[in-house]
Amino acid sequence: MATTTRVDFIFDFGSPNAYLAHQIIPGIEKRTGAKFEYIPALLGGIFKATNNQSPMVAFGGVKGKLAYEQKETERFMRRHGITKFRPNPFFPVNTLQIMRGLVAAQLDGDSLPYLNAVLHHMWEEPRKMDDPEVIRAALSESGLDAERIMARMQDPDVKARLIENTESAVSRGAFGIPTFFLGSEMFFGKDRLRDIEEAIMAGAS
C-alpha cells in the first residue's frame, strides 16, 4: 500500500500569506495525492526566537520594497484566481487565542470548519480577531459552538501544545510563516508551493 506524502505546514492565522497558501493547497493535494498537515505555531514566538521581524518592520525603510511585495501578492492572487482576500484593518492581530482554538479543534478531531471560519473573519470579512467578544460572535455566526471553543482555548493541554509546536518549528529551522517541510527539506513562502508540488511529483515518479 502506497504511503501518502505528508507536507507539514507551519501555520498562523496572522499571516496573510498563510491565508493565500491555504487557498491553493487543496488543488495541490488533488493533483499530487499529498496531504498538508497544518501545524499551529505562533508567528510572534518564531520571530522572537529567531530575531526576525515582520516585512512591514524589516523592509519599511527600504525604498520601493513594500510596494513591490504588494505587486507580487497581486500577481499571485491573479494567477490562482483568489478574489476574496481583504487586508485586515486591525493588522497586526494578536492571534494567541484563535491559534489555541485551532489546536483545540485539531485535538477534538475536526479542525477544518474552525480553520475556514477564522480565516474568513481574518482575511475575507476582516474583524479584530484578538477581541474575545469579537471572536465569540464570529464563531457563532459561522455556526460553531463558540462557548465550547472559547472554553477549550483555556485548557492547559491546548496551551502547552501550541508552545511545543512553536518551539519545534524553530528547532526545525522555521523563521517565519508560511513554512513547509517535505520530509526534512524546508520551503519558506507561498511562492515555494510550486517547488513543493514539483518535489512531490518527482518523488512519486
Condensed summary:
This protein is of the alpha+beta class and 205 residues long.
Characterise this structure.
The protein has 205 residues and is α+β, with helices and mostly antiparallel strands. Helix content is 56%, strand content 10%. The protein contains ten helices and four strands, in the order βαβααααααααββα. The radius of gyration is 17 Å and the shape is globular. It starts with 5 loop residues before the first strand and ends with a helix.
Q: Key terms for this structure?
A:
4-stranded mixed β-sheet, 205 residues, Glutaredoxin
Secondary-structure content class? alpha+beta
Shape: globular
List SSEs in N-to-C order. Answer: EHEHHHHHHHHEEH
In the sheet with the most strands, the strands line up as 2-1-3-4
By CATH, the superfamily comes out as Glutaredoxin
Strand content: 5-15%
The CATH topology? Glutaredoxin
State the helical fraction: 55-70%
So what's the CATH class? Alpha Beta
**CATH architectural label:** 3-Layer(aba) Sandwich
Unreliably modeled segments: none
Number of helices: 10
Q: Domains counted in the coordinates: how many?
A: 1
What's the alpha carbon Rg, rounded to whole Å? Answer: 17 Å
Number of strands: 4
List the helices and strands and how they pair.
Blueprint: E1 6-11, H1 16-32, E2 35-40, H2 43-50, H3 55-58, H4 65-80, H5 96-107, H6 112-123, H7 132-141, H8 146-152, H9 156-172, E3 179-182, E4 185-188, H10 193-204
Parallel strand pairs: 1-2
Antiparallel strand pairs: 1-3, 3-4
